[in-house]
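assembly run, all chains below
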Amino acid sequence: MEIKETSLINLHKSNGAKLVEFAGYNMPVQYSDGIIKEHRFTRSNSGIFDVSHMGQLFIYGDDMLTKDLEKIFPIDLQSLKINQSKYSFLMNKNGGICDDLIITKISEGYMIILNAACKINDYKILKEKLNDSYKLELKENLSLVALQGPGAQNILGKVIPETTNLKFMHGGDFSYNNYKLYITRSGYTGEDGFEISIPNEIAENFTKILLKNGSKLIGLGARDTLRLEAGLCLYGNDLDTETTPIEANLKWAISKKRINDQYPGSEIIKKQIHVGVKKLRVGIKPDTKIIARANTKIFNEENKKIGKITSGTFGPSVEYPISMGYVDSNYSSINTKIFLEIRGKKIAANICKLPFYQKNHLKEL
Amino acid sequence: MSEVKFSKEHEWITLEGEVATIGITKHATEMLGDIVFAELPEKGSNVEKDSTAGVVESTKAASDVYTPLSGEIVDTNEKIVDDPAKINEDPEGAAWFFKLKLKDISEMDSLMNKEEYDKFAKESGS
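ok done. output:
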C-alpha cells in the first residue's frame, strides 16, 4: 500500500523532520531539536503537532441520531451541548475497546476524532451499526493541527482572537482568510491547548503563522512522552480489544446516567463497575533509572507474574523513567512493591499515581 | 595516543599501550536520538569481542553496546551513567564508555580507520 502524506509534509521536511511510517502515513517522529527539547518546549512554551493522520468523522443527523449513537457510545449525548466534546470509546460486544475517541456535538450532527490506525475500521463499524440511515463522512480534505502548551492561548489568540474564550472540551466555528475552521480546546499532552480542523489547502500557511508567532513543530516522539507523563493512554499499547474501559481505569468516561442502558459490552461494563476487575491499569515507577518498556513482565515479591507494561519511556519533564501497565488488581494500590524483568534481571519498582506530570490545562468552568 | 579506529557496530576505539578506550560514534548518537539511560559493564569483568558490553536507551528504544575487542574491563565512565545526555554532547570525547586491557592486540587489525568508517556509516545508513 502506498504511504500517505499529510498536507504539512513539505513543512516537516524543511524543518529537518526525521520521517517514519505511522499508521500508513509518513509522519515526523522528531525534528532537528530532538524529542527531549521538543517535549520541554511544549511544556514551557507551546508545540504544534500535525495530527492530520487521525480520522475526522462527521455524522449528520438530528435527535434520532443522538438516540442511535447512545446505543453505541456509553456517554450521555442527550445532555451534550452543541460545541461540547467528550472522551469516549467504541467497544465490541465484550466491552473491549475498538478505539478511544473524542466526540463533539456540532449543529449538523457529530464530529468524532478517531485514531489513525483505527479510522477505516471505525467507519465501517459505525456505518453498519447505524444501518446506513445517516450520512457519514471520513474527511480527507481536512487537516488536523494541535497547538499545545501554556503559550497556546496567546499564540492562537494573535491569529484568531475569539479562540481565547473557548472553554476546555468545547469548540466552535472560526474563520481564517475566508476559510472555515473548527477549533476545540483540547489535546493529548496534559497541557492547555487547541485542536484545529482546517482545510488542507491552507494548513501549511496557517501552521507557518503559528511558527512565526513563536511556536515550534513537535514530532510524534515527544507527543508520546508528553501523553505518557500526563497518564494518557495510547491505543494499541495501553488500550485494545481485550481491555475494557473499567480495566483501563477510565470509568470516569462512562456516563453514570448510562450505566443501566444497552450498548455494546454494557452487561460486562455494568458487572465490572459493581463487582470489580481482575486487571487494572496503573502507573509504574522503577526504583532506578532503568526504563521498563512495553511487554516488560511484572512480578510480585513471591516471583509470581502479575502483569505487564504497556507503555514506558523516560519522562523529560519529571526526569525519571515512567511506565504504565496492567497488574492483577490485588496489586494495584499506590506504593505496592513490584518487580520488572528487564534484560534478565528483576528490577524493583512501585505502583504510583497517575498522571506523572501534573496537568496544566484550563479546567472546565 | 594512537589513531582513532572504528567498528561496524559504531564504536570508536583509541589505544594507549595495551589499554583501549571505547565509546560510541557521533553517527550512532545521531541515529539513537536523545540518550536517557546508559548501563556499563562491571569493572574487572572479562568480555569477548562482539559480545554485549552495555546498553544505551533513548526515549524511543534500547540498544546494546558491543565490545569490538576482547579483554578485561579496567575502567568505566560513571559520569555518563549519572548524566546520559553527555553521550549526545560529546560522544567521541568526554563520553567514553569503558577501558579495556586487551587480550589480543591483533584484534585491532579488523577495525576501520576514519575514512573507511565514514564511508561505511554513509552506505549502511543505519
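Residues 95 and 268 of chain A are 6 Å apart (CA to CA).

The helical segments of chain A are 9-14, 35-44, 63-70, 119-129, 152-159, 200-212, 220-229, 266-275.

not gonna interpret more than that til we talk
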